[in-house]
Amino acid sequence: MAYSPPNEDTVVVCGGLGDCSDAAELNGGGVTKAAWDDNSPTDFIDTNGGPVAGAADCSFTTATKVLLSLGMGATYVVIGTLAYVSAGDGGHITPGIYEITAHTTDTITCAGIVDDGNNDTGVTVNVGGAIDTLQHVFDNDVNDAADYNRYIYINGVSAGIGTITIAATIDIDTGGGALASNSWKKIIGCNTDFTPLTNGNYLTLTAAGTDFAGTPILSIDNLENILLKNIWLKDNDGNGGTPASGEDGLFIVNNGTPRNVVLDNCKVTNCYRGIFWGDPGGSGLLVIDSFIDVTDYAIRSIASNGTILNSFLKSASGDYCCFPAYRHSTISNTIIVGGLYGILLNQTDGGSTVILNCSFYGQTAGCTYNGGVTFTNLIVMNSIVQPESVIDHCFRYGGGSKYDDYIFTTCTTNNLPTGDDSQDSLAITQIGFVDPANDDFRLLPTSYLLNRGMPTPGKTLFTEQGYTTPGAWQRKSFLGID
């Protein structure tokens, strides 16, 4: 009989409590999400990260699915904890991670255990506990094919609070792709007590001190539905040098038609590229409240459907700061700094791009570039453009492009089409950023642009009240201030 994983949302912990000295490479595998929410982490993880209970000499009764060893099922074991159960001396059990459905002082019951109908002895059981390394927790993917969410909480205890130094690229293989399942793997950085980190605080994964030789910090292969939250990918810099090509923060492998990658409150610094989705075929990149400051592209995604919200993107020397998607992209409330061009547009088959309330700074050739392709669906609204030098083409367009622009810019010409779709572009010499040289793109209280953006519905620009302020609102946490 085939093994069937638990059919509920589950939590797996990497890092553990204490110094994590007891964490095992393979252990109880965590807890159901419902039990996690109703109890304390100490109910599932011992002082140093190991299982809360277990034994290597359990007997198994197939009729009742009971595992017996003196003291193993002590009353502090929480129903809903997941237990790793081995095959036993006779090999009658299908090894795997099973939910505890009942327990006594000396027994635990896992009603879902799969076996061949025979009793067994010498069964190893680990109840709860943390997994010792990130690679092990990502490799422990027995539940990935099931249609439920898998939460991976990481707190960095094993290598210092808040930081994990890694020695080689971490591969995350979700066993999905091409809509193989509806299961999400949610990788979440936490405080040491597993309370959520707030925006602007991160669990740091650093490659400092190791030469990754042209490989990324994280590589996601065969993916289906990944969330990275509160994670900082840092210093993939060839062991103290300049990041080389391929030494990226996150690389998404086009294997199995990847779909749905979300970064929420994440950060990527001192890498070659921030996020690199290498080939077309997949879809669904969402970047929210994230800060990316790298050598080349901050984001380079050739997948479809890219959305970037409330973020900061900076390229030190790339041709482009951001390539959000092969087709269909939305960029809102985001600061785009540097690059020969700010955004690369290469949407040849009816795709569209919307740029709303963004701020462009430091581009030397243009804010967008369409690769010579006739581009028919580009909407730019309520945004600020301030290159370091006056340029002739802020926004390049193909026939039929739509610009509801409301652009505030130092440029003498935007190369925008004329007519009703090109409205109210205003050239001024001083935007009034606080300190752009140090990446502070908030507007000064004296800025001319305050309340001079796109009007609210029914109002006329510059003649009535009801204005919004153009450009991106910048999170203070991106600047290291409260």
Summary, kept brief:
The protein is an all-beta fold and 482 residues long.
Total beta strands: 39
Beta-strand percentage range = 25-35%
Taking the alpha carbons of the first and last residues, their distance comes to: 57 Å
Secondary structural class: mainly beta
Largest sheet: 11 strands, mixed
In order across it, which strands form the biggest sheet? 2-1-10-13-16-19-22-25-28-31-34
Number of helices: 2
Shape estimate:
elongated
Low-confidence stretches: 418-423, 459-464
- Over all CA atoms, what is the radius of gyration? 26 Å
The amount of helix comes to under 10%
Mean pLDDT: 80
Walkthrough of the structure:
With about 475 residues, the chain is an all-beta fold. Among the domains are: about 10-125, no CATH class; about 370-475, no CATH class. It is about 0% helix and about 35% strand. The chain has two helices and 39 strands. Strands 2-1-10-13-16-19-22-25-28-31-34 form an eleven-stranded mixed beta sheet. The longest helix has 6 residues, at about 35-40. It is elongated and about 80 Å long. The protein starts with 9 loop residues before the first strand and ends in a 39-residue tail after the last strand. Mean pLDDT is about 80; it is low at about 420-425 and about 460-465.
